[in-house]
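Before a colleague's protein record goes any further, I have to sign it off. What it holds is a sequence and that sequence's fold in C-alpha cell form. My question to you is simply how this chain folds and whether the C-alpha cells agree. Thanks in advance; the entry in question is below:
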Amino acid sequence: MSTADEILVLAEKFSLYFTIVIFVTGTIGNLLNFGVLTTSKRFRSNQCAFYLIIESIVDTCQLSIIFIIYILPFIYGFSPGNIFIVWCKLKNILPQVFRLLSTSMVCFAAFDQFLCTNPQCSMRRISSIQLARRLTLTAICIWTIHGIPYAIFYQIIPSNGCIITNTNLIHYYSYFYYPILHGLFPILTSCLFSLLAYRNVRHLVRRQVAVVRRRLDRQLTAMVFLRVIFFVLLLTPYTIYRIYSLNVLVSITDLGPYAVDQLIYSIMASLINLNYSTETKDEQNFSDDDLICPITQEIFRDPVRAADGFVYERDAISRWILQKGTSPLTRKPLRIDELRPDEKIRHLARRRRRSTVSYDARNDTVSLPPLRLVPRATNQISPIPVRPCQTVPRVPRVECSKKRMVKLLFLLFSICTIVGPIVGMVLGMLSLYYYRGKVQFIIT
C-alpha cells in the first residue's frame, strides 16, 4: 500500500470514528440543553432561551444527517451520493441549511442578550418572544430558499461523482458564501454583540434591577458568551480551509495531493461538526445576589424553595402567602405546605454571614464578622505615614469598558488576519508539494 493510500485510509477512519463520537456526545448534550431550557421556569418564556432551544433542535438534526452521510458508505461499501441523484442533492442541501440556521441562532442569541441588558429602556423593549419567533421563521425561509440552487446544479458526473456543474455558483461560494456569509459576518456579529452584552451585564449593579432578573441576565449572558467562544474557535479553521480548497483545485486522479487534501478536510470537517455538539451549561454559581431574599433584601437564614422555582425566606414568604396567596415574582398561586427547605443555599448563606455584617430581624440583633488578631511585638509597630490628601479624578467605568472592548475586537481581528494567511500558505505548500499535472475541481 502506497503512502497516498495509507493517508486516504487514515482520513476515512478518522472521519468515521470521530463522527460517531461527536454524534453520540453531541446528541446527548443537545437533549440535555433542550430538557433544561424547556423544563426550567426561568427559561420557559425567555427569548434568548428560545434561540438556544431552536439551536439545540437544529444541531441534533445536523448531527443526524452528518452521521448518516458518513455511515452509509461504511455499510454499503460505496457512496450512495455518486449513484442516486436524490441523495446526491439531499446530502448537500440539508447540511447547508442546518449549518446556516445554527449560525443564525447563535447570532440572534448574542443580539438578544445585548438588547435585554441594554441600559436604555427603548432597546430592551425591542427584545420579545414575538420577535424571536419572527426572526426564526424568517431565517428558516431564507436559508431554505438559499439551498435551492444546490438542488438544481448538483449533478452526478461519472468520472468525478456528485459535484456542482455551474461555474457561477462555484464563484458565489468562493467569493461570498464561505468568506463572508459563513465566515467573517457571523464571527464578527456574534463577537461584537456578546462583548457588548458582557459589558452591559457588568453595569447591572448600578441600575435598579430586580435580583431575580439580574441573576437571569447574568446566567444567560454567560451561556451565550461561552457558546460564541466555541463558535468562533471551531468555525474559523473550517472557513479558512474552504476558501483555500475553492481556489486551489485538486484532482481525484492525482492521489498524492488528493490524499493530503482529504486528510485536511477530515480534520476541518470534524472541527466544524464539533460546533454542533457543544453543550451550553447552566452552571449554578451562587453570587451575593443569589443569597439575598427578594422580599426582605437580607441574607437567607431559613431559605425555602417555592413552587414557582424561586427561593425565599420562610417567614417572609409565609406571611406573603397568607396575605396575598400568590408568588411575589410570577403572580402564580402558592401554598405554604409546598415550601421545601434548600440546604445548599442555607449553607452558603451561613458561610456568607460569618464574613460580613448581617441583621437578624427575628431577634433584632446585628452579627459582626469575627476579628482576626495578629500577635505582634510592640517594638515592631512602625508609625503610619501621613500623606497629604490629593484629589484624584474619577474615571467613568464605561469609558474603560469601551476601550477594553475595542482592544479585544482589534486583537481578534489581528489574530484572524495573521493566522488566516499562515494557514493558507501552509495548506498551499502541502498541495504544491504533491501537485502534479492539471487539476480539476471537486466539491466533496
